[in-house]
C-alpha cells in the first residue's frame, strides 16, 4: 500500500503542537525555488537550520549562484521562525567518485538514488551531531524526484544516526504550485537542470533535439 507521507507529516506536526513543542529541524535544502514553499510551511512549526549541502552541483559558478539565491531568500522571506543558514562542504570530487559507472544512468535512476543518499546521509550525521529533533529534505517537493525512495533512505538513516527523520511529500497540497508562485514573487533564479554535469548534458541534448524538431517542422 502506498504511504501518504504528507499525512504522516501532518500527524507529527499536530502531535508536537498539542504538546506545545517547537522542535528543532535540520533541513537539507537543494535550491531556493524548492526551499521557498517548504520554509514557508515548516517555519510555522519548527525551528529550522537550513543546510545547503549539494556537492552534485556543477560547475562551481552554478553552485555559488544557487547558494547565494537561497541565502537571499531566507533573508527576504518574512518567516515565523527565521531559519539559520548553514553551508556544507562543496566536494564535487566525492560526488564524481560516487557516480562512477553510473554516468549514463537516466535522471531519476540509480545514480540519483546514490545522490539522494549522499546528501541525506550528511544531513542526518550533522543533525545527530547537533542534537536536533528531526532531519528532512526539500527534495520531495520536486515532481521529478522519487519521494518514496527519499523517505525510505531517510528512515534507514534514522536507524543509523539515531535522529528522527521527518516524512514528507512537499509537492502535495499544492506545495509545488506554491513554490512556483513564491519563485515568481521573489524573482528567484530557476535552473533548468537538476544539478550534476550529467543532468546538464541530458538537458542540453533535449534542447538540441527540440530545436532540430522545430527546424524540421518549418521545412
Ligand atoms: S540528476 Fe540530480 S539527483 Fe540525479 S545524480 Fe544528478 S544532481 Fe543528483
From TrEMBL:
Signal peptide (from-to): none
Family per record: Belongs to the QueH family.
Presence of the UniProt keyword Iron in the record: yes
EC number assigned by the record: 1.17.99.6
Catalyzed reaction equations: epoxyqueuosine(34) in tRNA + AH2 = queuosine(34) in tRNA + A + H2O
Stored Pfam families: QueH
Name listed for the protein in its UniProt record: Epoxyqueuosine reductase QueH
Disulfide bonds: 194-196
Residue positions binding [4Fe-4S] cluster: 30-31, 112, 115
Record function comment: Catalyzes the conversion of epoxyqueuosine (oQ) to queuosine (Q), which is a hypermodified base found in the wobble positions of tRNA(Asp), tRNA(Asn), tRNA(His) and tRNA(Tyr).
Gene that this polypeptide is encoded by: queH
Amino acid at each position: 500500500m502506498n504511504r501518504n507521507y504528507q499525512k504522516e507529516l501532518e500527524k507529527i506536526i499536530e502531535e508536537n503542537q498539542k504538546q506545545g513543542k517547537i522542535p528543532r529541524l535540520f533541513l537539507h535544502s537543494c535550491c531556493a525555488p524548492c526551499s521557498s514553499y517548504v520554509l514557508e510551511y515548516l517555519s510555522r512549526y519548527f525551528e529550522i537550520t537550513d543546510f545547503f549541502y549539494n556537492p552534485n552541483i556543477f560547475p562551481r559558478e552554478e553552485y555559488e549562484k544557487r547558494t547565494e539565491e537561497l541565502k537571499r531568500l531566507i533573508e527576504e522571506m518574512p518567516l515565523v521562525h527565521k531559519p539559520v543558514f548553514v553551508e556544507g562542504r562543496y566536494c564535487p570530487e566525492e560526488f564524481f567518485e560516487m557516480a562512477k559507472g553510473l554516468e549514463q544512468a537516466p535522471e531519476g535512476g540509480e545514480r540519483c538514488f546514490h545522490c539522494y543518499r549522499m546528501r541525506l546521509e550528511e544531513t542526518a550525521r550533522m543533525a545527530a551531531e547537533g542534537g536536533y529533533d528531526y532531519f528532512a529534505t526539500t527534495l520531495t517537493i520536486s515532481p521529478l524526484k522519487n519521494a518514496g525512495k527519499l523517505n525510505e533512505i531517510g528512515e534507514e538513516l534514522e536507524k543509523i544516526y539515531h535522529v528522527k527523520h521527518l516524512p514528507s511529500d512537499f509537492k502535495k497540497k499544492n506545495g509545488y504550485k506554491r513554490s512556483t508562485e513564491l519563485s515568481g514573487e521573489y524573482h528567484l533564479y530557476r535552473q533548468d537542470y537538476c544539478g550534476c554535469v550529467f543532468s546538464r548534458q541530458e538537458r542540453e541534448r533535449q534542447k538540441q533535439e527540440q530545436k532540430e524538431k522545430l527546424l524540421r517542422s518549418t521545412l
